[in-house]
Design brief:
Strand order of the largest sheet: 1-2-3-4-5-7-9-10
Number of strands: 12
Number of domains: 1
Strand content: 5-15%
Structural class: alpha/beta
Bound molecules: 6-O-phosphono-beta-D-galactopyranose
CATH superfamily: Glycosidases
Helix content: 25-40%
Radius of gyration: 21 Å
Number of helices: 16
CATH topology: TIM Barrel
Distance between the termini: 14 Å
Low-confidence stretches: none
Length: 477
């Protein structure tokens, strides 16, 4: 019951949640820099409250985050100590192109990532790079309205050209957009979308989705041309929908919810829109501006692998009374509480078998290798007087999920390229902006209010994960 010899064990982060240095060395402003801490966070993320600049009334966790910009050598050394084979990170678009579409890239930004990738290579850690992780340049929102506008495709293409030409010698694995389906749930954070009064939101969302899908396909093709050995993936916020009961109405509801979720990946993995999507858009009066050329681009730019995040499964019902009982932590996806599952302190329900179920669905649907690029447990950690941090709850969560993926690989025969647990080092939570919600195996001394020394400490899970990697997934105790 082992994993393949070349299995990529590692961890994942995103630029805005760990780098900090939001305005240093020529970096431009990006969506995530203006998403505040506190009760306005969700409103801004969802595009309900317009914020294109920072103000004095709010604090912005991305500004300093865990200051990985100045700690990356120390952090990568810790990843290497755990035995990482891969490190998933994202490049900040505006560190490379401060306005999003500058002709000449920012030399300091380029140098930073070159040094970071070289540092990974020094330890034989394969960098896995997300090109866009909730990171739309503010200048492009002011200029075009974000991904509402077709011109974003060219801006993104240019950004990709810069990345591929500068880092093709160091980076083989790429992901075009983080959790591309998040565009429907957090349109500002996901795609820089703000709505004007009276605008048809579905029309806008699916138009933006179309442009991102075309941009993604163009990026895949470009990567293959510029970096022949490259592997480019799509990325889904996954988690199977379960029907609340065996009432066919519930089954149907679950199937529809899954289809909505898989919509993006259907296009990226198969190269064309699923037939039901055209029908559904027609019925809803949504008209996307899809040209013949777009259809050709989508067909030519299918991904090499399907990557996804998995935190929990979801549950849904056709009964409006049941639907009222939303799981707190699943607010973004509006899922119903599943009475068979326990939940984290943030209400995210824990379902390891759901990972195996999700993997089976994804592989049956696409027959492409899978890559689990996010999975983990957000929890409050306590530092003991002697400086140790005991996090058995995190180890238990990860163990159960690794067992489920091991079954999916060994018993179901699913090709899986690797596993990068989310937030391998504590970082800012995307949904809440908190530091308190920790995922890391490395503790960072910083609290929600921004106090702390930023010192890094190894948690119990650090030593546990090291053993897991050393034994290639055999020793999970
Ligand atoms: C995913 C995002 C990540 C990450 C993770 C955990 O949706 O891709 O950026 O943050 O969820 O979520 P949270 O930070 O809200 O706990």
């Amino acid at each position: 019951m082992r994993f393949p010899d070349n299995f990529l064990w590692g961890g994942a982060t995103a630029a805005n949640q760990c780098e900090g240095a939001w305005n240093e060395d020529g970096k431009g402003l990006s969506t995530v820099d203006v998403v505040p801490f506190g009760e306005d966070r969700m409103k801004v993320s969802r595009g309900q409250l317009k914020m294109l600049e920072c103000d004095d009334k709010h604090s912005y966790p991305a500004h300093e985050a865990i200051d990985m910009y100045h700690h990356y050598k120390e952090d990568i050394a810790l990843f290497a100590e755990m035995g990482f084979k891969v490190y998933r990170l994202s490049v900040s678009w505006t560190r490379i192109l401060p306005n999003g579409d500058d002709e000449k890239p920012n030399e300091k930004g380029l140098a930073f990532y070159r040094s970071l990738f070289e540092e990974c290579r020094k330890y034989n850690i394969e960098p896995l790079v997300t090109i866009d992780h909730f990171d739309t340049p503010i200048s492009l929102i002011k200029k075009y309205g974000g991904w509402k506008d077709r011109r974003m495709i060219d801006a993104y293409f240019h950004y990709c050209e810069v990345l591929f030409s500068h880092y093709g010698d160091l980076v083989k694995y790429w992901i075009t957009f983080n959790e591309i389906n998040m565009l429907l749930h957090m349109p500002f954070m996901g795609a820089g979308i703000l709505y004007e009064e009276g605008e048809n939101r579905d029309q806008i969302n699916y138009t933006a989705a179309h442009y991102e899908l075309v941009a993604s396909a163009k990026a895949v093709k470009l990567a293959h041309e510029m970096i022949p050995e490259s592997m480019v993936g799509c990325m889904l916020a996954a988690g199977q929908f379960y029907p609340y009961t065996c009432n066919p109405d519930d089954i149907y509801k679950g199937m529809e919810a899954d289809k909505d979720n898989y919509f993006f990946i259907d296009v990226q993995a198969r190269g064309s829109y699923p037939v039901w999507a055209w029908k559904r858009m027609e019925k809803a009066g949504i008209q996307i501006n899809c040209t013949e050329e777009d259809l050709r681009v989508l067909e030519e730019g299918t991904v090499d692998y399907v990557s996804f995040s998995y935190y929990c499964s979801r549950c849904t019902s056709a009964d409006p009374e049941i639907i009222k009982n939303h799981a707190r932590g699943n607010a973004v996806f509006a899922a119903v509480v599943n009475p068979y599952l326990k939940a984290s302190e943030w209400g995210w329900q824990i379902d390891p078998l759901g990972l195996r179920i999700t993997m089976n669905t994804l592989y049956d649907r696409y027959q492409k290798p899978l890559f689990i690029v996010e999975n983990g447990f957000g929890a409050v950690d306590k530092v003991e007087e002697d400086g140790s941090i005991h996090d058995p709850y995190r180890i238990a969560y990860m163990k159960a999920h690794i067992e489920a993926m091991r079954d999916a690989v060994n018993e179901d025969g699913i090709p899986l390229l690797g596993y990068t647990c989310w937030g391998c080092i504590d970082l800012v939570s995307a949904s809440t902006g908190e530091m308190k919600k920790r995922y890391g195996m490395i503790y960072v001394d910083k609290d929600n209010e921004g106090n702390g020394t930023l010192e890094r400490k190894r948690k119990d899970s650090f030593y546990w994960y090291k053993k897991v990697i050393e034994s290639n997934g055999e020793d999970l105790d």
